[in-house]
Structure formats: C-alpha cells, structure tokens
Amino acid sequence: MSLTPIGEPRHKITVASLREKKLQHEPITCLTAYDYASARLVDEAGIDIVLVGDSLAMTMLGYENTLTVTVDEMLHHTRAVRRGVKNAFLVADMPFGSYHLGVDEAVRNASRFVKEAGAEAVKIEGGEKRADLICSIIDAEIPVTGHIGLTPQSVNVMGGFKVQGKTLPAVEQLMRDAVALDRAGVACIYLEGIPREVAAMITAEVQTPTIGIGAGPDCDGQVLVFHDILNLTFGPAAKFVRRYADAAALISEAVQAFRADVVSRQYPSDQESYHLPKDTQAALDTVLERKHAMRR
Ligand code: KIV
In this structure, which of 146, 170, 218, 250 has its CB flanked by the most CB atoms within 10 Å? Predict the structure, then answer.
C-alpha cells in the first residue's frame, strides 16, 4: 500500500475507486466537513471521502441532536463544501424527515443534493427496511451510501445513543441490513457504534466497502467527525474518538492575544497600516497649513 505524498497530483475518487480500494485492501479514509475551509483542508490532505454529515446540526448549528436540521440547511453547507472539494468523493447526509414520507419525496430531495449542491452521493440511515427506497434513488442515477448500527436519526426509537448489535438477534438483524444494502448497490456502508466482531463479520461478508465509526479496526475504512479530531466539540468525546489536535486551545489563545493587543493598542502597528502616497501627503500638508494660517 502506498500513500500519495501531499502535494502530488491525486486522482478523483469515485464509486468504482472505492470498490477497488476494498479489493486491494487499501484503507479508505473519510472525514466530515461542513464549510469551504474545512473542505479544502480535508481534500488537500488526501482524504478519500468528504461527508457533509447531519452531525453539522450539533457541530455547526448548536442543535441538541440531528433531528431538527433541514434539507435547506444541509444544502447550504453542502454547496460550501462542494466549492472546497476537488478529488474526494462528496457525500451529503439526507436529514431526518427528508426520506421518511414516501419514495417520490425522497427521490426529489436526493436529487436536490446533486442538482443544487453538487453532491456525488447521498447517505441514508437504515438497512433492510430502507433497501427498496434506496433502490429507487439509485434508479434515479443518484449514488447512495448506507448507514447502519447506531443511527442517530433513530435516537428516540433506540432510547439514546447506545452501542448496537450486542445480542444475537441484533447481530443477525445487522447482518441482514448490511446484505440488503449490499444487494441494493450502495457505494459504501457506514457502520456506527457496533462491536468490532460484528463489523469484521459484515466487512468480510459484503462486497461493498464498509466505513467504520466506533466499529473497530477491521472495516474497509474509517470516518471521524472533523470537530471531534480537533477538539472543537465543547464536551467529552466518545470512546472511539482520537484527538489529533487541540484546535479549541489554539483558537482561544489566538483570540485572547488579539484582544490583548487591541486593548493595549499594540494592534495594528504602523507596518500593518496603509499610508497616503507622498504627493497626496504633500498636497494635504499644504491645504492644512493654509487653513491654519487663515485662522491665525
Ligand atoms: O453525520 C455524521 O457525521 C455521520 C457520520 C459520522 C457517519 O453520519
């Protein structure tokens, strides 16, 4: 396995190249991004999939959970991310309520993500019971990614954010869900919050690449939330989150330094100021001198 060095030209990631990575046992990388700046940083670092997750409800908009975010809010963020992504495969989350009220509406909403925001695929939570709906969206030429296990849009049904697939019937249901998504032809399957052993079994069983989050190391790829890896979430992190930087501390330090410089009049300096051209300054001095003289 070779990593493309940063700065080297990269190939566009597609549904086919994700499948090829699974076949070649090449780990697939995925991060969320919600705006132009994060999208550029993630894409330029060589991440394979950029996911505009509905987790933006919490990370960007300060909502309690993902249930309240709307299609229009998701489209707004997806458009910004689109402008920052060149090579990664761009997936947008279909929010709660956007695919639950009938096939026609689901296909219409999915097509908005492609047409109005430039997404290359949408993500839908749920397995076996969403398989027919997913087939209809794929029939409309829109690639779909699946998401099973701990599906945050089902929080009220699950009774909280709990690890799923811990009993034999639950493991069997998860396997049926994964196989149904595999048969439906999804581009990849996100496995969230399930035991490592179950994720490994699913990954071995299906031809579709699996992308884990809190699902152990045996998936075909891994996804984490941008704000989680940078400590921008203002709270304790889940067990599976690895923090790669403390952006909260960095940002806070920078903001405090700016405030201190303004309060102590150390910002801006003369070098950070614009100046009049010499001839304008000379003309201005003459005018001011004349005015001064008339007053005397
Ligand atoms: O919304 C999200 O960020 C997600 C994942 C992290 C899989 O669905």
Answer: 146
Q: Does domain 15-250 have CATH number 3.30.930.10?
A: no
pLDDT per position as a tens digit, 16-46: 999 999 999 999 999 999 999 999 999 999 9
- CA–centroid distance, residue 219 to ligand 1 (Å): 16
The model's pLDDT over 86-119, given as tens digits with 9 standing for 90+, comes to: 999 999 999 999 999 999 999 999 999 999 999 9
Residue 103 buriedness (CB in 10 A; 0-12 / 13-18 / 19+) = middle
Assigned token pair, 68: 């309240």
Token digits of residue 265:
């009049």
Where along the chain do its domains lie? 15-250, 258-295
How many C-beta neighbours within 10 Å does residue 22 have? Answer: 19
What residue owns the CA closest to ligand 1's atom 4?
53
